[in-house]
Structure formats: C-alpha cells, structure tokens
C-alpha cells in the first residue's frame, strides 16, 4: 500500500482514533490521580503544621511568652528527627526559640500558608517546607510549619510510577485498538466478500447473520433482503429473456429457411437478389438475438459451471490460425504473443468469442496493418489484449461504446449491432475481471487496444 493510501485507510484511522482515545483517557486519569495525590499530601502537611501552631498558641495563652518558648523547645527536643518547623522571635524578628536560625525574609505574620526553602539549625541542607506566621498579643512572632521533602519525594515516586504505567499502557492501548479494528474489519470483510461474489454474478450468496442485533447486523439484514429482491428480479428477467429468445428464434429460423427455398426456386435474378438481402437481414437478426442472449446470461452469472483450465497461449494461437487468412484478405496481419504460464480458470468458448469480436472490430474500424493479440501476467492475474493501428475510441465516448447497441456516429455506416464490446465487457465481468480501453498502447503515435484483465 502506498504511504498516502496507507494514511487514508479507514482501518488505520480507526486504530489511531481508538489508540488516541485510550491514551488520552489514561493520561487524564493519571493527571487526575497526580493532582488529587499532590493536594492530599499538601493538605496533610498543612493539617500537621496547623495542629502545631494551635498547640503553641494555646501555650502562649496559658503562660505568655515564657510558656511559648518553653513549649517550642520541648516540642523540638521531644522529636528531634521530626519534620516540624518552629520559630519564636521578638517583635524585631530576633530568634528566641525554635529550630530556625533567623526569621525568614519575605514571610509576613499574616497567618497565610506559603511554601519556602530554608535551613533548619539541625540540618546541613535546604529543605522545602510550608509555614505560617502570626503575631502574638505581646508583639512577639510565632512561625510554625512542616517540612514537605518527604511528601515531595513521595510525589516524585508516584509520578515516576504513573509514567511507567503510561509507557505500559501504550502497547496495551495499541493492541486494544488493533483488536477493535480487527473485529470491525472482520464484520465488514464478510459483507465485502458477499458483495464481491454478487458483483461477479453469484446472486445466491448472502451475508451470514450472528444474531447480535447491532448496526452491522441491521446492515447485513438489509443487504440480504435487497439481494433476495435482486435475485428474484434477475430470475424473472432470465425466464422472460430465455422465453423471448426462444419464441423469436423459431419464427426467424423458419423465415430464413423459407427465404432460402424461395431463392433456390426462383428464376428471376432480381427477385433472388431481393430475397437474399432479406435472408441476410434475418441472419443478422438471429446473430443479434444470440449475442444479446449471451450478454444477458453472462451478466446473470450463467456459465461459471463450465469454467475449465484454459491455456491462454494456445487459445490465442487458435484464434490467429482461424482469423489469420481472413485478416490477410482485408489487408491486415494477425500476430500473437504470450509468454510464460498463461493458464487460468475460464469459460473457454465465451472468452474465445470475446477475443474474436475484438479481432472482428479491428478489421472493421482500424487501418490496414498489424493486429496484435497478446497476453501478459499482471500482479492480479492475466491481461489479454487486442491492439490495432486504428484511431480507436475517444475517451469521452468509451462509456457509450460499451453499452448494448451503442454505436458511435462514425461507425454507423459499417454493419453491426453495437453488441461486440458489450459482450466483451459482460464476459470480463463473468470472470470477475474488467475491460480497459487504451489509446497509444505501445507509446507510439496512434493505435488502440482493448484489454481484458482477469484474476488468476
């Protein structure tokens, strides 16, 4: 798959969407957990510091500044390794008791909690802490707080763990997206397989239902109902077509036989010429009827039971042998080329008739010169083409030329019914292939080629 088509693939976009949604939801969840954890850790530190401040303030209320200093020193001495921060200072900020050497700059006694980094007297490194300062009734200052270094380390550990979880979630999310895409692709593939079989003419195929009742089930049931209706209509059309062909063929055959007897019995040359002209028209009608019936049958998928292994090279050789003398009589030279393994499963008679129609068209519409039958291997199967040196069909008129009874204005003076290319197209579709019309097939000035591309 080419890079541009790869990026435009619905499956790839679906995988990317599911992957992005899973990763996005995981990131949002982890961010929410990190935010909640950080808030809880901060609130825990604030609660501890607030309890310490309340205890020290109660000591001041009971015994004034001496009781406050004594309580502060006792609190520090009782738990020397604790994370408490205490400082009692006079109104000028000079230290009276506590584990801070001096009043920290920028901290106002307004009762607000703030995060700062300071040295405690018993520590040889700066520590992150949250503190709150207040002014006592006698003008002294009290600062109480709690070191949050441990909380920060715990928070960093939680963030590292979340990053590890996110890295682990990446392959899991990708695998989940791919599995989801596989499930959806599997449901769509069953529909596509059935549609492809119907497109090639197997109207009996139906999409299997699993009873889930979901949107895919509803779609499959709707398509199956549509296929039931199409199969019914095609069957009715086939019956009508076969009956009509049979009913028309019999009187036309009798008419032709009667004309031939009349030609043999008449002694008048003018009458014989007129009767022969009518007989030729009857022959043309019979041929048109037979070709139209073959097209209808091919489009309805009739004939797949007669598929056999066909050697395309041998078939081209037979066509060149049969049509070669006729082509030479009209000033053409029939050539063929097929190299390598050219065996495919095909309806030999219909495929041969389609190629014969193309050779006949080349002799009708092309300039005298070479007519080349050639077969080549393609990545998807085999391409069989008939090329000539004629002007071909302009691109804007090719769709009309492929229709039944489609005849372009320059060709209306030439005998024919406009069914040749229609039959070729129907035969290609019967085999699951397609027909391509290409101007200047060899990269030279002029020329035209009709190519039948078949799988296999």
Automatic annotation (TrEMBL):
Keyword vocabulary terms for this entry: Kinase, Membrane, Phosphoprotein, Transferase, Transmembrane, Transmembrane helix, Two-component regulatory system
Domain annotation HAMP: ranges: 182-235
Catalytic activity: ATP + protein L-histidine = ADP + protein N-phospho-L-histidine
Gene that this polypeptide is encoded by: rstB_1
Main location: membrane
Domain Histidine kinase: 243-456
GO CC list: plasma membrane
Enzyme nomenclature, EC number: 2.7.13.3
Record's keyword annotation contains Zinc: no
Top-rank EC class of the record's enzyme: transferase
Protein name: histidine kinase
GO molecular function: phosphorelay sensor kinase activity
């Amino acid at each position: 798959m080419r890079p541009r088509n790869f990026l435009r693939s619905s499956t790839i976009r679906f995988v990317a969407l599911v992957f992005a949604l899973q990763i996005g939801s995981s990131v949002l969840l982890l961010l929410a957990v990190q935010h909640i954890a950080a808030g809880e850790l901060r609130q825990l530190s604030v609660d501890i510091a607030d309890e310490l401040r309340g205890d020290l303030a109660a000591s001041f209320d009971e015994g004034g500044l001496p009781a406050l200093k004594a309580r502060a020193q006792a609190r520090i001495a009782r738990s020397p390794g604790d994370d408490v921060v205490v400082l009692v200072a006079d109104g000028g900020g000079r230290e009276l008791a506590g584990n801070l050497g001096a009043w920290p700059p920028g901290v106002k006694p307004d009762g607000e909690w703030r995060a700062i980094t300071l040295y405690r007297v018993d520590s040889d490194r700066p520590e992150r802490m949250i503190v709150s300062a207040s002014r006592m009734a006698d003008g002294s200052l009290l600062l109480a707080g709690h070191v949050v270094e441990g909380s920060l380390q715990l928070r960093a550990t939680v963030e590292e763990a979340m990053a590890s979880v996110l890295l682990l979630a990446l392959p899991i999310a990708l695998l989940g997206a791919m599995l989801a895409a596989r499930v959806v692709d599997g449901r769509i593939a069953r529909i596509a397989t059935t549609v492809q079989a119907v497109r090639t003419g197997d109207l009996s195929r139906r999409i299997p239902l699993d009873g889930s009742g979901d949107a895919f089930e509803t779609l499959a049931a709707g398509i199956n109902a549509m296929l039931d209706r199409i199969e019914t209509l095609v069957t009715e059309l086939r019956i009508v077509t076969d009956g009509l062909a049979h009913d028309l063929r019999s009187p036309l055959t009798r008419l032709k036989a009667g004309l031939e007897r009349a030609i043999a019995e008449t002694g008048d040359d003018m009458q014989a010429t007129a009767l022969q002209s009518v007989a030729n028209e009857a022959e043309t009608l019979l041929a048109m009827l037979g070709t139209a019936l073959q097209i209808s049958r091919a489009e309805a998928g009739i004939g797949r039971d007669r598929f056999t292994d066909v050697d395309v090279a041998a078939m081209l050789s037979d066509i060149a042998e049969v049509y070669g003398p006729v082509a030479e009589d009209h000033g053409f030279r029939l050539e063929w080329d097929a190299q390598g393994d050219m065996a495919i499963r095909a309806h030999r008679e219909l495929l041969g008739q389609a190629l014969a129609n193309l050779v006949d068209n080349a002799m009708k519409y092309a300039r005298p010169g070479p007519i080349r039958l050639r077969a080549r291997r393609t990545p998807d199967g085999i391409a069989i083409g008939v090329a000539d040196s004629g002007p071909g069909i302009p691109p804007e008129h090719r769709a009309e030329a492929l229709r039944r009874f489609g005849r372009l204005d320059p060709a209306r003076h030439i005998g024919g019914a406009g069914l040749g290319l229609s039959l070729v197209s129907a035969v290609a579709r019967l085999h699951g292939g397609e027909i391509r019309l290409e101007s200047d097939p060899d990269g030279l000035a002029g020329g035209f080629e009709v190519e039948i591309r078949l799988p296999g």
